[in-house]
Give the backbone structure.
Amino acid sequence: MTSEQDSSFIGDVGRFYSGNTDLWTSIGSHFKTPETYLHEFQLRYPEVSIRFELKRRGLNFANNKARPVHRWTDYLEGFSDSFVYDTMDDFGLGKDSVILDPFTGSGTVNVCSMMRGIESVGIEINPTIFRVLKAKTAWEISPEEIRNTMKSLDFTKETSIDPPVFMKTDRQFRPDVLQIILRIKEQVQQIERPDLRIYFELAFMTVLLPCSNLKRSPSIGYDKKKETAVHVRLPVELFETKVGQIIEDIEQVQRIQGELPPCHIYNEDSMEFAIPAEHTVDAVITSPPYLNSFDYVGNYKLEIGWMEDAQSTADFRELRDRMILCDNVSRKMIQEYEEQPDLFDLDWVTYVTRATRPRMRERLGIRRKDYHILIRKYFEDIYRVLCRIHDSMRPGGKVAWVVGDSLILDVYIPTDLITMMVAEKAGFRPMGIEIDRVRRSGIRRSFVLRESIVYFTR
Ligand SMILES: C[S@@+](CC[C@H](N)C(=O)[O-])C[C@H]1O[C@@H](n2cnc3c(N)ncnc32)[C@H](O)[C@@H]1O
């Protein structure tokens, strides 16, 4: 890095974090600040460029809402198709490449790959999100068959099925609206052909939240205002609109698309799953869960419960405990984890885990006292996935890893920088970091956090 680049980098750091300085003093934190970490990182890795390129990539999923196929679901935690296309271009990927997303979620990477005629692999642990992914990557169906199936559904028929018993359905839905939702569910369940049923299941899932008394922004909670706004015709209206959108988009992609590239999707755990040897991966474009309190199971419990992918709250817990960690995982699992030997030794992980210990003692009424283990487990989970990816990639293959940093108990955690170090432990060579978005900490709204793209190569 030249001295010119260096000074612009330092200037950007100052500007970016200027609002944090007073706050840091008022928190009374004597731990390392985001600026300190960035400077130390530069000293350790002088060859790795760190650029402030705010909004250059437009990471936000909101950009997908008008795009064919992407628009079928509203997955707030997803990233944008434009980011994926830009990265494909930067990495020089073409029709002979294979792209992997080990946290494929609603399938942005797979759908973009299909649009470009590129083979892709996607892994997603959540069985309900996997249903979405299955539908969004199945483009060979006849739109006429979806249309005819839609015509055969009868929502005037009384239903005998029950809502999921373990959920608070009475609070979540108005009784008249609930009856219609049950009718839609029963009609969808009765579609015999699984290759057709997947689109209707997806449409059904998208109806649940807007017809409930809940909102997701981004965490799920009750919305008092909605009780009066939802009306009894809404479920069928939304369902029909969604199926109409699916038909329209399938017609469009079939018109413009030549031969479809292979898209291999797996409902598996990326920490464990050995990617089959026949897919030698050229590039990874992905975004894992961040180290924070975002609970992918709790926030999608409506869809998971109604699709019967969980039969009890114990099933929710079991799924949550298997995922890359959020701070809602069970204490029992973490207690067992504590007994395990460390997977690797990294001074910054040791530093942040130690820094949280006094905070847990000092703070009254905090939810849990095991944050030091949670933080270690998060980076070890990520390490496990990175080792799997490393095994599946060809030498020279590149990775773009989108991740946000965190503030836990007023201890700042540079998740992007630590991820780069963990990637190095897993055998990758660090390339660069692009800071693309400003975020706000959930607990201290005025604290500036960032969202970065971490680049490394096999
Ligand atoms: C940030 S989201 C990815 C969103 C995706 N980029 C998109 O555009 O829809 C992270 C995803 O990782 C999944 N996940 C968490 N732990 C996992 C694991 N161990 N194996 C595979 N997927 C996992 C979550 O269910 C979630 O869908």
The longest strand covers residues 393-404. The chain has two domains: 3-125+281-296+311-457, 143-256.
